[in-house]
Design brief:
Layout: H1 17-23, H2 26-42, H3 49-73, H4 75-80, H5 88-91, H6 96-117, H7 120-144, H8 148-152, H9 154-157, H10 159-168, H11 173-196, H12 198-203, H13 209-212, H14 215-239, H15 244-266, H16 276-304
Membrane topology: Multi-pass membrane protein
InterPro entries: Protohaem_IX_farnesylTrfase, UbiA_prenyltransferase, UbiA_prenylTrfase_CS, UbiA_sf
Protein name: Protoheme IX farnesyltransferase
């Protein structure tokens, strides 16, 4: 099925500030800021409070820029999918040109500010993240391969690496481990959504794994990624930049994640209103915040715990 849309841009912008904020995908921004902050606080070394705040703002703006560029390019897809039809561009409140200009300005501003005021390793990582999400994922992978989420998930996994680089000025194995946790979490998370939103992706002609490879293959791959995620989630404790307490918390959270994925794998009731796939999707959101929340607690105790002892 092909998607044909005709956009007539108004002479006078109808956009309000909240429309531009929506373009930035604020829910995604929250996760990006949170995981980047965890990376910053976990990294060894002092953090200048002013530069730390500037770095977080730049990372947030960079994430928002990626979201705006994604909505600009995907306006035709968004218009035919139930969960995205009311976004600013298909809804008519923001024109494609406005969204493109907005995204480009935010991209340049965030990268240059982070590079000039903090360091260019972090700035380069932010630039690559924006490019990866807007070009590699949105413009290429999303419409061409059912592995779109697997490869494209790297874009969402970079923020803790950027946060680590803000403090350390380098790319380290610890930052890569934080990247890997999000990277291996992404396929089960998004494929769970795709399993109960298959019709939307089919209508939009987006080759998500369930639509192309089938539900059985998708479930097998989700289970495989969840099995690999469990030891990865324990790696911070094994490597020594998190404590055994974190390791115990991660083991429980990842065990539940694996169990819920197994329920999806074994599910025969795919037409239920509240299916195992939907439950896994909702738990996966909680899971990532909880894993990084536990790491944040570790980082805060390491940096500031002595003040209260």
């Amino acid at each position: 099925m092909s998607i044909e849309t005709q956009t007539i841009e108004p002479d006078v912008s109808l956009a309000e500030p909240r429309d531009y904020f929506t373009l930035m995908k604020p829910r995604v921004m929250r996760l990006v800021v949170f995981t980047a902050l965890v990376g910053m606080l976990l990294a060894p070394g002092p953090i200048d409070p002013v530069l730390g705040v500037i770095a977080i703002i730049c990372i947030a703006i960079g994430a928002g820029a990626s979201g705006a560029l994604n909505m600009w390019y995907d306006a035709d897809i968004d218009a035919v999918m139930s969960r995205t039809a009311n976004r600013p561009i298909p809804g008519g409140s923001v024109s494609p040109t406005e969204a493109l200009n907005f995204g480009m300005v935010l991209s340049i501003l965030s990268v240059l500010t982070l590079g000039l005021l903090v360091n260019w390793v972090a700035g380069a990582l932010l630039a690559f993240t924006i490019f990866f999400y807007a070009v590699i994922y949105t413009m290429w992978l999303k419409r061409s391969t059912p592995q779109n989420i697997v490869i494209g998930g790297a874009a969402g996994a970079f923020p803790p690496m950027i946060g680590w680089a803000v403090v350390s000025g380098s790319i380290t194995l610890e930052g890569i481990v934080l990247f890997a946790i999000i990277f291996f979490w992404t396929p089960p998370h998004f494929w769970a959504l795709a399993l109960f939103k298959m019709r939307d992706y089919d209508d939009a002609n987006v080759p998500m794994m369930p639509n192309v490879a089938g539900e059985a293959s998708t479930r097998n791959q989700m289970l495989a990624y969840s099995v690999l995620l469990l030891p990865l989630s324990l790696a911070p404790a094994v490597m020594g930049f998190a404590s055994p307490v974190y390791g115990a918390v991660a083991a429980v959270l990842s065990g539940i994640f694996l169990w819920r994925t197994w329920q999806v794998w074994a599910d025969a009731g795919r037409d239920q209103t509240f299916s195992p796939a939907r439950r896994l999707f909702l738990y996966s959101i909680f899971y990532l915040f909880a894993i990084f929340g536990a790491l944040l607690a570790e980082a805060l105790f390491t940096r500031f715990g002595g003040l209260f002892l």
